[in-house]
Each structure stands twice: as structure tokens, then as C-alpha cells.
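Reviewers asked in the last cycle whether our approach scales beyond single polypeptides. To address this, we selected a multi-component target totalling 688 residues and predicted its structure end to end. The input consisted of the following lines:
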Amino acid sequence: MHQTLLTLAIIGYVAATGLALTYLVQRDELLHRLASLATLAAWVLHTGALIARAIELGRPPLASLPEAVSVAVWVVVLLEMWLERRYGLQVLGAFVLPVALAFSLQSTPMRPLIEPALSGAWVWVHIGLALVGIAAFVFNFAGALMYLLQERQLRAKRPGALYYTLPALATLDRLTYRTLALGFPFLTTGLLLGVIWAGAAWGSVFTFDPLALSSYVAWAVYAATLAGRAAGGWHGRRAAYFAIVGFVALVLTLGAGLLFPGKHAG
Amino acid sequence: MALFVAGLSHRNAPVELREQLAVDEDKLRELLRDVAATGVVREALILSTCNRVEVYAIADVPGEARTATFRQLCRHRGVEPASVETVLYTHADGEAVRHTFRVASSLDSMMIGEPQILGQVKDAFALAQSCETVGPALHTLFTQAFTVAKKVRTETEIARHAVSVSFAAVELAKKIFAGLDGKAVLLVGAGKMSELAARHLIEQGAFPLYVANRTWARAQELARALAGTAVPFDELATALATVDIVITSTGAPEPVIRREFVQPLVHSRRGRPLFFIDIAVPRDVEDSVNTLDGVYCYDIDDLKQVVDANIRERLREAHRAEALVEREVAKFLARLGDVEVIPTIVSLRERLEIIRSGEVKRTLARLPGATPETREAIEALSAAIVNKILHAPITKLRESSRAGSPRSWLELVHELFGLGRK
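The resulting structure, written as C-alpha cells, was:
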């Protein structure tokens, strides 16, 4: 049940991503409407899949990393639909959905459930906070990417399709700054809890765990960007480049957790 | 009785002829009354703008009506009718509906998507109404045309992007700053086009405005006109540090804004973008300024390039608008046709139902021993026969109405089935 729904949801996300990307180039209102519909349908299926999973497990589907990533995708898509409507950002889907799709493809091969090594309320808080952080950084990344593309258009002085569809530079810069400012505290607290918990459960903060290690890198990049923005007057292009580097580190973090053996896998 | 549009426009008639034929409002009233007085048209509306002179009318004999109307028009304007006859185009029925929708939606305009035409059509409609030459047919047609025009405007982007240099500059500023509220503007040099661009920016909320000019008196004069502040020309660098948008249009042979002025500002502006609109030829802003972080510089050629792209964008959208109009025309014709034939179809059905139920009643009265099954079968049989007989005439009526000529068919059906006067 859960697997079928999830597969259908992913097919829906593939369709939505394709439509959203085509809309970006073709700018046909119909494509955008179809993309929105596909997104909504896939998200509903995804909701069903998560509920089915939760009933199957008798607990929230958050204890293993693939599960948490799947929930993160669910949150991201929900936010995407909301922000798109709220701010009239019709192109947002084209930048967020591919990322969401990549994540959800990562999270499909649900391994046979190993009784999670983690337990206790701390763990739920750790996962929940990290999850909100990740969701915020997906939008941070999308905003940065849109900023760089629009900046290029404006500098090249040859308005192309993207010039018309992408929002103003100031809007995009604000989006990346806000998502950074929102995501960072969550990521930080999530990480701190993880560190404290790891110290208690694994005996050492620095046990080799690929996810933990690369998440420190991502955190450092984001910390630097935030500091640069707040104190050094960073903005625009530089801030956008950093947002992208930070996101790559974050993706590597999740990739490491999903693909390499470590204490987060399973 | 048929709808037709006849006229000439920028597409086929030279401006000399168009301006000769163009009619002002008072003359238009007179003309409409004269045309109505000839009795060849049942309804008429005349649209006269600098790009087109057209008659929209309902007449029994469209060809005759067209000739008579334009003869009147030529007489009023003192133009030789022969010179007009050769360029006149005529659209009838469905074509005329399409033309009306396209004109109102600004798809037939010289600059596609220009907003004036809809207002002009509305004025022409109001004028014809006040002259009482608008009847139910033109009323339906034009109210629908206004709806379609609005739909085209909101559902496509034919009118969205600027097609003038000064508006293109404003649009670019919005792509950089999002809103222009509270963005400070500096005008360097004074010129008509830069003043226009400044006005557009102010309308969008840009404030405050500074004016710098080599001639102090001219700076003060322009500052007064635009409710801004004059700044001395040699304090340009200071002013640059505080503003967001700079419009330059001096007659200086060398650039007045050099990279070395702007470079130190980049850091102190802490990420606030700086947008130069350089309308001067030769240019006022050094080329390399555009490469500075957060600094954007558009010269007149760049702006023209943006305008060209915007025009291409409008033409692209025009394809979508045409498709939309096409759908609306089909819908309108179908509805119009059905409206015309539906009363006849209804009375035809009623007529036959009276005959059928009467005969069934009489037959059943003579069959007292009939089982409920038999009664039901007789009902069903009679209903089926009536439906089969009605199928062909009803289809034919609908078809003829969609083809635009239901009149003779309507009469025939009334006559054949004895439906009484329509």
C-alpha cells in the first residue's frame, strides 16, 4: 500500500517537474496549471503514502533517514505550493520540484526496517528541527539559483524567456536571505541536539559518521554566509554563490547518510 | 438580415486617405443619422480612429448597404467614392464577428496590445447608442467584444511589456529593485526623454529626486518641475552614493560617470544595487561600470534591444490571443445561432407532443383491456416515432443557424408544421 502510493507520488512529481520546467521556457499558462495540478495530485498521494507508512509502523515515519527525507520532501512541496500562490511566483516550481524529486528518488529504496538505533524524545526533536532547516535551505538554494540566472539576464542585456518569468533581483535576494535566516537556527539546534545526543549514545561526538561530518561542513558554509550577510554587507551574487555551495554540502550530507554505512543509515 | 463590417485601416489604406475619411464626434452623429435615414441598414455603428474607419452594420442586403453607407461617408468628407471603393474590405457574418473581437482586443492594431483601441470602440458604441442606431444584434455583438477584449488582456500578456524606451527603463528598474517605492533618482543632464523616464519612475513611487546639470539655473528649473532637489554638478559623486537610479543625458563628449567614481561606492552601498539609465549619445557612463558588482548600466541601444524583445514577446502572445479569440467567435456564433432557432425547436416539440399524447389517449380509450405493459409499449412507440421524425429538422435548423442563414429554414419549418406566425 505505502510503496504503491509512494511510487505513484513519485510518478506525479516527475510529471510535475517536467511540466514546470517546460513552463519556464514556453511560458504557457496552461502548462503552469497542469504543473500545479500534477504537483497537488502527487502531494496528496505522498500524504497517503506517509499515513499508510505511519499506520504500518505504528509511529511517525521519521526514525530512519530515508523516512525523514521523504517527510522533508513532503514539507518542501507543501511550502512550494503555498509560496507560489502567496507570492505569485509561478516559476518557483521549476526550481524547487527538481530538487524535491531528486530527494524523493533517494528516499524510495526504503530498506527493510531495522529497528532504529535512535530512540527518545530528543531524537524526534533532532530530526524535526533538521527537517525544517533542510526545507528552508531547499528554498534558499532555489532563490539563489533564480537570482544568478536573472542577474545574468540583466547583465547580458538580452532579455530571454527567463527575464520575463523570473522575479526581480531584490525579491530573490530577500528570499535567499530570509530562508537562510530561518533555516540556520533550525539547522544549528538540530545539529547541536544531534551532537549532544551522539555524545551520550555513541560515547563520542566525533565517531565516524559520514552524515554528521558533512553536516558540520554545510553548517560552516551557512554560518559564514549568514555572518557575511549580517556583518559584512554581503549580498546578491556572492551570497547566492555561497547559498549554492552550502546546499551542495547539505545534499552531500544527506547523500552520505543515505548511501554510506554509518550510524544514520537504515 | 446579416451582419457586416466594411472599412479601411492601416493595413490596406495609406494615412492620407485615412485622415481624409476620419470623422470627429459631431460629424459622426450626423453621419449615423443620415445612414440610418437611408433605410438600407437596420443597425449601424461607425468606428473612426486615426488607424481605421469602419462601419459595423446589420442590413437585409449587405452589399447595397455598404455602398450606400460609404457613399454617405465620402459625401460628408468630400472624398471621391471611387478612391475609397478600391481599398474597402468587407467581412460578413462569422468573419465580421471575428473582426470585431480582434479589433476590440487590439489584435488588429498597428502596435499589438495598445490599450487605446478598446476605449475608442467603447466610445463609438456609446455614440451609436445615443443616436439609437444600435439594436439587439449590435448590442449583443459589442458587449461580447468588450468581454473578449478584457479576457485577452488578462489571460495573455499582449499588453504587458513596455514598447517605449522610457517605459522599458522603468520595467528594468522593477526587475532590479522589485518595487520602486522610496528609490532615490538622480537626473544628470536635462532632456525630454530623461525627464519622461523620471516622471514614469516617480509615478511608480520613486522618491526623492535629485537633478544635476552643468547649468545651475536649468537644474533648478527641472527640479521645480519634477518636485525634486537641484544638486551642484561637481557634487555628483556625493549624490551617487545615496541614490538608486541614475538617468544621464548630458551633451558631454566624454563620459561624466567614470568607473573610478562608482567603484568606491560598491562597498559602501552594502549590496544596494545601482542602476544607470544612460540615454545620452555619446554615452555618459563608462562601459566598464556595468561590470561592477551590483551595478547595472543600460545605454540607449540596450534599452532599444529590450523594447525589441518586448515587441517579440507581444507578437508571441498575440498567437495565444488569436486562438482565444477564435474560441470565443465559435462560442458566440453557436450561442447566437441557437438563440435564434431554440424557440422554434421548442414549439416544434410542443406541437408534436400535443398530437402524440392526444392520439395515444384516444387509442388507449378504445383498448380498455390493455395491460400496463401494452400501454407502456404504445407510449414508447409513439414517442420514438416523434423523436425520429423530429431529428432531421432539428439538426437542420441548428446547422443552418451555425452557418448563419437560419431564416429561410425557420420559415419553412413554421409553414410545414403549422406553428403559426413566428
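The two ends of chain B are 16 Å apart (CA to CA). We regard this as preliminary and will revisit it once experimental data from Aim 1 are available.
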